[in-house]
Amino acid sequence: MNIIQQLINHQNFTPTEQSINTYILENIHSIAKMSIQQLALATHSSNAAIIRICKKIGYKGYKDFKLALAIELESQKFINHSVDFSTPFYQSENYYEIINDISSLYKETINIVQAQLNINHLERISQLIINSQRIFIFAIGDSRITAMTFINKLMKINIYPILATENYEEIAMAYNMTPHDCAFFMTYNGTNNQFKTCAQILKRKNIPMITITANKNSRLVDYSDICIVIPDMENDYKIGTFYSQISFQFILTVLYSFIYKYDYMHHHQHKKNLDFYIKK
Predict the structure, then answer these.
(1) Nearest Cα to 260, choosing from 249, 271, 274, 244?
(2) Cα separation values, 241 from 27, 100, 196, 238, Å
(3) What's the predicted TM-score (pTM) here?
(4) Where along the chain do the CATH 3.40.50.10490 domains lie?
(5) Where are the bilayer-spanning segments (predicted)?
(6) Which of 70, 144, 184, 252 is the 20 to 30 Å CA partner of 173?
(7) pLDDT tens digit string along 251-276?
């Protein structure tokens, strides 16, 4: 759920907090330019009351809230609001309409995620994958399928990630890792208890961790050295995991491209030689 939805739907605000909340929603595009003192003055409230609101919706304070809101508003510029990411089409639609719906879903998903990407984070993740002795990928369900595609791409350029969750031995895998390895968690909701246990083990062993998730409150975010958090656009009553898997696939494709670019001519020649034998 995004910030604006949280502000609209939150049920536990005090009357003072609700008054501040109403002002924020009515002046949403001005908040990013306001200091906490200016907001307190405009709402006849206090800094403490504003900070309480921020904490109730999952932020450490006003500064974190304001930054996240600015990013969300920027990403909203790319969103076609006719797209429903959980139910992108309905039974009453004809096949041509469904094709257009799914096309819009793909385009809007990529636009939203692209607006969130941090080049520095992507570069750091790419370098970590390149420089690690072993890359252990933690992914289950539909995320596992997307992870397998990423693994397949890397194998073609002589990088061999290990799918730690392949035989449900992820805790043993985590325990056997060394600081020369890296762990890569791919989980949309970020609530898997096994992953949490793995992350605790990895943190104690000082093993670098990467996470892609849509849950900014996940403990994996706290444990990870580098994290990509995408907007949570799906609800529990979805037709399929369209948005989440398109998002992950797009991010992983960008990471693969960064890795390929790092030693472009070598990878290009290697793949060319490989393709020669595959096509024989």
Answers:
(1) 271
(2) 34, 18, 22, 7
(3) 0.71
(4) 119-278
(5) 242-262
(6) 252
(7) 999 999 999 999 888 888 888 888 87
